[in-house]
Every structure is written in C-alpha cells, then in structure tokens.
Design a protein that fits this description.
mainly alpha, 86% helix, flat
C-alpha cells in the first residue's frame, strides 16, 4: 500500500543512514504497520475504558505516531551520520593529502586513511575502494560515494578530483586546495553558529530566567507593600 515514490525515499534514507542490518526496507515497513496497528488497539482500549473527546483524539493520533515513528527515527539517524561525515571530512582530507604528497597513489592514500580512521566517512571510503577493486572506474566509484552521502563539501571534493583526473592536474595540488577551503568553510560555519547563539538564548532568558529574577527581587517588596496598605 506504500506508494513507489515513498519507498524510494525510504530506501534513500536507509542508504544515508549507512544501510544498517537492522534497518532493512522490509523491516521498516513491517515496523510501521505493526506500530500503527498497536496505536489503533491502544486507542480503542482507551476509548472503551474512558469515552470522551480526548480519548477519541488519541484514537486518531496514536496510529499516526506509530506509522511515522520509524521514519522519524531513520531520518534522525541519517542526519546524524551526514553531520558526522561533514565534521570529519576536513581532517580526513588532510590525511589523504599527506599520504599523496608522501608518494602514495590516490587509492592507496584512501585505503590508508580509511583503515586508520573510524566513523562513517572511513566506512564510505573503504566501500568506495571496494567498488574500485570490483572493476569500477575511479570516477564512477566517487560518483556513487556522492549518491550515498548528501554532503555538499564532499560533492565539491569529488567533482574537483574528477576534473583533475580528466584535465591531468596533479591530485596533490587539488587535495591541498580542497583541504584549505574545507577548513575555511568549517570556521565560517562555527562563526555563524556563534552569531546565532544570542538569539537562541533570548527566548529562554525572557521566558524562564527573567520572571524568576523579578519574583526574587520584587516578591518581598510586593509582600511588604501589601502588608502596609492592608493595615
């Protein structure tokens, strides 16, 4: 009953999440169905025990929560994985650059970096090398890497490598430039987040901290004034 486009998006999310064994497409669809049925059963029991408008609303909300809960969990896992890849990309690219400048070939540098590092980016690099060893060209393997990972910085890096290979530009030079650009972009992103921090703090400050301060400072004075005017 799931539309084809929806299934394709779910498969895309599973790939972005690293294709975990416990999160196959069939298991996700089964979990959605089971949780939705569980939500209906829970709503019916609640309506039967306590009839009312609130319990009737629960009968509508519980199945929807059960149906979309696996999607939300999978999307959160995929987003965390993409963020981890984005944060590790600059340091990983530095290791690849050092290895290439030391005389290793590009694939050997990727293999050395992937084996010496941990995390989702190292896993993706090793998977790319497996595609190359299986007979796929370097450009096609890198394109498949971009398809599995939705990180703009990695997309620019792969595009630069493919263009360098096609035009005969030394890969070490391209790696050095890409590494510098990634570090500048990461610093700019950190500065942007730091500039947004005062705005994010403003609402908790106004809603939570300032009322408490007013109660502590003005509360005794208000009580004193009420006693004076009351007498």
């Amino acid at each position: 009953f799931t539309p084809a486009g929806r299934i394709e998006r779910m498969e895309r999310r599973i790939v972005m999440a690293g294709t975990p064994r416990e999160w196959t497409l069939e298991r996700v669809l089964a979990a959605k169905l089971v949780l939705a049925i569980t939500g209906v059963a829970f709503g019916l029991l609640l309506v039967a025990s306590r009839p009312g408008a609130l319990t009737a609303l629960t009968l509508l909300v519980a199945p929807l929560l059960g149906w979309f809960a696996p999607d939300a969990i999978l999307a959160g896992r995929a987003d965390r994985r993409q963020q981890a890849i984005r944060l590790a990309l600059a340091d990983t690219l530095d290791q690849v650059t050092i290895s290439v400048e030391a005389g290793l070939a590009f694939e050997s540098a990727l293999a050395r970096t992937g084996r010496s590092s941990k995390g989702p980016l190292a896993e993706e690099l090793l998977r790319t090398l497996q595609d190359v060893q299986a007979g796929m060209s370097r450009g096609e393997a890198l394109k498949r890497l971009v398809e599995r990972v939705e990180v703009d910085e990695l997309h620019h890096f792969v595009l630069a490598i493919i263009q360098a290979e096609s035009y005969g530009i030394p890969i070490a030079q391209v790696l050095r430039v890409q590494s510098g650009e990634l570090r500048v972009k990461r610093r700019q992103l950190a500065e942007e987040r730091a500039q947004k921090l005062p705005v994010k703090i403003l609402f908790p400050l106004v809603l939570c901290i300032l009322p408490t301060i007013f109660i502590v400072l003005l509360g005794p004075a208000a009580l004193r004034m009420s006693e004076v005017f009351g007498t």
